[in-house]
């Protein structure tokens, strides 16, 4: 065997420091939301003595497992506000972070297959327009103009009766998004501590004063949880419950193909969503597995079901192959909306419940969580998303209302 | 795909069943007297453990009866199957499964 020396490793995007004993703020979870929270703590609030504690490696959870759909065409005012804020940030971030993470505003079609879908779609288009979100209703022939490979024949089990279209929606490369935020936050002084699992909380009366980790105790009076599927596990350690359930959510890719699919297509009714990545893979996802699970894998019949739905919509995919399937653990809330705000423990904040659709919200999630941690008060955008809504009954019910929630 | 054993019909594929979430959540005995906090607990808050979980399943395309299962939410291994009115069985560590 030749003993050729490997080339030097290219420059790292962030340092890999050991934890300091004390920080001004700690973020638990190094997925997109945790990384973005740390970035905005530093950028918007000048709080740079911050640690992000990640039990595995940065963005190894849902952040690198999602199907990367970005859109803001949600039904309710509170959702439209926070997701549209996120979309506006996406439009600025490649320049701000000086990183081309392949944000591509290729639009999203949410197909309607039933009279109820048609009514719901038209209602949502009108609601979106009132909220300043770009939205159009398309008839089947207009759907075919946007995406010629969608089967608009009437001669199928669930014919396409129309679609909502958001032209500014799109996709981005999720791992590059995480790395872009992490590099920028690291340069502002944030410590990203990997292989560091939070196993307990240090408290003084009702106040949090730090965390116990697999790399020792780390102190801070301000701790934010951004642990996605593991939020309940952490909350239980801090002594409170969250109204979320953890489920497997699966996705898959095909082998590489010529560019054939110019947009993003989602169908609530036959339940699949499909785009084509820059490299050429067809990227598809569907609904959650029904049972609670922390196993980062789900059942195969869910994949079969989503393939059947994809073939109904795109007969051209009949000869494509499934190359790889995987799962993430998503934290689903009762109203399919996130929970961002205070907890019963003083100084401890939570950001969870994004379920199947939090990638698109990454900038807004980080922005509002940073504001909440820095000031102790919610930002106007996340005020309606507090835990209290489950007691007051002021739910933000995006189940069904927002097309498929991804 | 999970292989679940209906207490009445025997082992069947997961696709024959529907999931019912956490088991042993009783309807409040005194609904008129509950505070908003207590209603919220009953309606929206469920356990979400990483590990053994007592949950309900219904054999939708078989006998259509409900039953309970203790399942590990990490390995997805079924640890116990029992009737809808039975108490959750004690599982000692290392029990034969
Ligand atoms: C298959 C799939 C498809 C999806 N598709 C879309 C989509 O198209 N569009 C969209 O908007 N959203 C989508 N989502 C949802 C989106 O991925 C999530 O809502 C979002 O990534 C959650 O935030 P996060 O990135 O911070 O989560 P994660 O990346 O999961 O971050 C949480 C981190 O916390 C860490 N952690 C957990 N416990 C501890 C502990 N005790 N100590 C330290 N660290 C801990 C984990 O290791 C993990 O890295 C999808 C999700 C999946 C799984
Ligand atoms: Zn049965």
TrEMBL record, chain A:
It catalyses: sarcosine + O2 + H2O = formaldehyde + glycine + H2O2; sarcosine + (6S)-5,6,7,8-tetrahydrofolate + O2 = (6R)-5,10-methylene-5,6,7,8-tetrahydrofolate + glycine + H2O2. InterPro entries: FAD-dep_OxRdtase (IPR006076), FAD/NAD-bd_sf (IPR036188), Rhodanese-like_dom (IPR001763), SoxB (IPR006278). Pfam families: DAO. It comes from Planosporangium thailandense. Its cofactor is FMN; FAD. Keywords: Cytoplasm, FAD, Flavoprotein, FMN, Nucleotide-binding, Oxidoreductase. Its EC number is 1.5.3.24. It is found in: Cytoplasm. Residues 26-69 form the Rhodanese domain. Its main location: cytoplasm. Belongs to the SoxB family. It is an enzyme of class 1 (oxidoreductase). This is Sarcosine oxidase subunit beta.
UniProtKB/TrEMBL annotation, chain B:
It comes from the Bacteria. InterPro entries: SoxD, SoxD_sf. Pfam families: SoxD. NCBIfam families: soxD. This is Sarcosine oxidase subunit delta.
């Amino acid at each position: 065997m030749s003993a050729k020396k490997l080339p030097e490793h290219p420059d790292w995007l962030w340092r890999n420091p050991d934890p300091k004993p004390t920080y001004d703020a700690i973020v638990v979870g190094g997925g997109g939301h945790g990384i973005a929270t740390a970035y905005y703590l530093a950028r918007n609030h000048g709080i740079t003595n911050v640690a992000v504690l990640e039990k595995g490696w940065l963005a190894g959870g849902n952040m690198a497992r999602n199907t990367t759909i970005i859109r803001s065409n949600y039904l309710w005012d509170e959702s439209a506000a926070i997701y549209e804020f996120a979309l506006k940030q996406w439009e600025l971030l490649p320049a701000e972070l000086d990183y081309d993470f392949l944000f591509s505003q290729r639009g999203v079609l949410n197909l309607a297959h039933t009279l109820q879908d048609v009514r719901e779609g038209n209602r949502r288009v009108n609601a979106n327009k009132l909220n300043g979100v770009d939205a159009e209703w398309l008839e089947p022939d207009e759907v075919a103009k946007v995406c010629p490979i969608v089967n608009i024949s009437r001669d199928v089990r669930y014919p396409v009766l129309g679609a909502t279209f958001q032209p500014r929606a799109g996709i981005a490369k999720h791992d590059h998004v995480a790395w872009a935020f992490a590099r920028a936050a690291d340069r502002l002084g944030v410590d990203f501590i990997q292989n560091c699992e939070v196993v307990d909380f240090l408290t003084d009366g009702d106040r949090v004063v730090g965390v116990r980790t697999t790399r020792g105790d780390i102190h801070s009076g301000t701790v934010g949880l951004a642990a996605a599927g593991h939020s309940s596990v952490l909350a239980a350690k801090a002594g409170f419950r969250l109204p979320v359930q953890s489920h497997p959510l699966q996705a898959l890719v095909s082998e590489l193909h010529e560019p054939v699919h110019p947009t993003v297509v989602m169908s609530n009714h036959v339940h699949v969503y499909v785009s084509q990545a820059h490299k050429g893979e067809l990227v598809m996802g569907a609904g959650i597995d029904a049972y609670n699970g922390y196993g980062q894998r789900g059942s195969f019949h869910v994949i079969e079901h989503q393939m059947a739905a994809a073939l109904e919509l795109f007969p051209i995919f009949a000869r494509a192959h499934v190359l790889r399937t995987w799962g993430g653990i998503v934290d689903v809330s009762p109203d399919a909306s996130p929970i961002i705000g205070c907890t019963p423990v003083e100084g401890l904040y939570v950001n969870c419940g994004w379920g199947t659709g939090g990638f698109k919200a990454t900038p807004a999630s980080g922005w509002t969580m940073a504001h909440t941690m820095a000031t102790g008060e919610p930002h106007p955008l996340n005020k309606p998303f507090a835990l209290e809504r489950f007691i007051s009954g002021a739910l933000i019910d995006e189940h069904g209302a927002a097309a498929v929630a991804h | 795909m999970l292989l679940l054993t209906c207490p009445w019909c025997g082992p069947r594929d997961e696709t024959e069943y529907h999931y019912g979430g956490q088991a042993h959540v009783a309807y409040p005995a005194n609904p008129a007297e509950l505070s908003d906090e207590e209603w919220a607990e009953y309606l929206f808050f469920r356990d979400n453990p990483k590990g053994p979980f007592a949950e309900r399943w219904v054999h939708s395309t078989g006998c259509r009866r409900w039953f309970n299962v203790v399942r590990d939410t990490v390995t997805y291994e079924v640890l116990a199957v029992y009737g809808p009115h039975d108490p959750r069985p004690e599982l000692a560590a290392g029990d034969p499964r």
